[in-house]
Amino acid sequence: MKESLRTSRYPNRTSEDRELINQILDEARFCTVAYADDHVAHQIPTGFCRLEDEVYIHGSVKSHFISRLLESPEVSLSIMLCDALVLAPTAFNHSVNYRSVVLYSGVREVRDVVQKARVLSAYTDKYIPGRMQDLPQPTPEELSVTTVLALSTNKSLAKTRTGGVGVDTSKSNVWSGIVPVRMEYGTPEVDQGISHLETPHYLNQLITANTL
């Protein structure tokens, strides 16, 4: 069962809605994973993907970070999507519109090779949808040197801010409002060794979908 989390500031901005949490997780490209090691706090930025009710990260079997996560009783994962800068009449009231997720979970190693391959394929397609149709599946050797970790989303919370400035601007002589923030992709630069190949259709689609 999903555990409830609480926030002390702006609780009206929080949500435990699974659809919202999943949407934010799926849109985000990167996360930060935090853990404690001998009473010292550590955090690592990394990529991830989500399948059903679990978030997956991966790394080398020799990774110190991965081994410490496996030894931790619970870790924390966080992400934030910045949607707009909020400019108010005073610096004190400036803000950002954002969508974020924080989750707490134990860490499970994915040992089944079929599931590992499925996760790593989903990971690739998260960043470049359709890419795996051009690529071979991971080899047994590649799977053997890669550790895949699963974190449950059952103990997670979304927090968002939307809307405008939120204060009275009628007597201000300073420009106030929001400045949308979006991510876009640049023009692909083909490797010279394959310069005779056309840009794949899924890459063109990705660029078109994420162009301002």
Describe the overall structure.
By secondary structure, the chain is α+β, with helices and mostly antiparallel strands. It folds into 2 domains: 11-181, Roll (Pnp Oxidase, Chain A), CATH 2.30.110; 183-212, no CATH class. The protein is built from 5 helices and 11 strands; from the N terminus they run βαββββαβββααβββα. The strands form 2 sheets. Strands 1, 2, 3, 6, 7, 10 and 11 form a 7-stranded antiparallel sheet that branches. Strands 4-5-9-8 form a 4-stranded antiparallel sheet, sandwiched between helices. A hairpin with a 7-residue loop joins strand 6 and strand 7 (95-105). The two termini are 41 Å apart.
Itemize the secondary structure elements and their pairings:
Blueprint: E1 14-15, H1 18-27, E2 30-37, E3 40-47, E4 49-51, E5 54-60, H2 64-71, E6 75-87, E7 95-105, E8 107-110, H3 113-127, H4 140-144, E9 146-152, E10 156-161, E11 177-180, H5 201-209
Antiparallel strand pairs: 1-10, 2-3, 2-6, 4-5, 5-9, 6-7, 6-11, 7-10, 8-9
> What's the CATH class of the largest domain, please?
Mainly Beta
Count up the domains.
2
The number of helical runs is: 5
Low-confidence stretches: none
Shape designation: globular
CATH topology of the largest domain: Pnp Oxidase, Chain A
Secondary structure class reads alpha+beta
What would you report as the Rg, rounded to the nearest angstrom?
21 Å
- In total, the number of strands is 11
The CATH superfamily of the largest domain is identified as Electron Transport, Fmn-binding Protein, Chain A
- Beta-strand proportion: 25-35%
The largest β sheet comes out as:
7 strands, antiparallel
| N-end to C-end Cα span | 41 Å
Write down the secondary-structure element order.
EHEEEEHEEEHHEEEH
Fraction of helical residues: 10-25%
What is the second-level CATH architecture of the largest domain?
Roll
User: Whole-number average pLDDT?
Assistant: 93
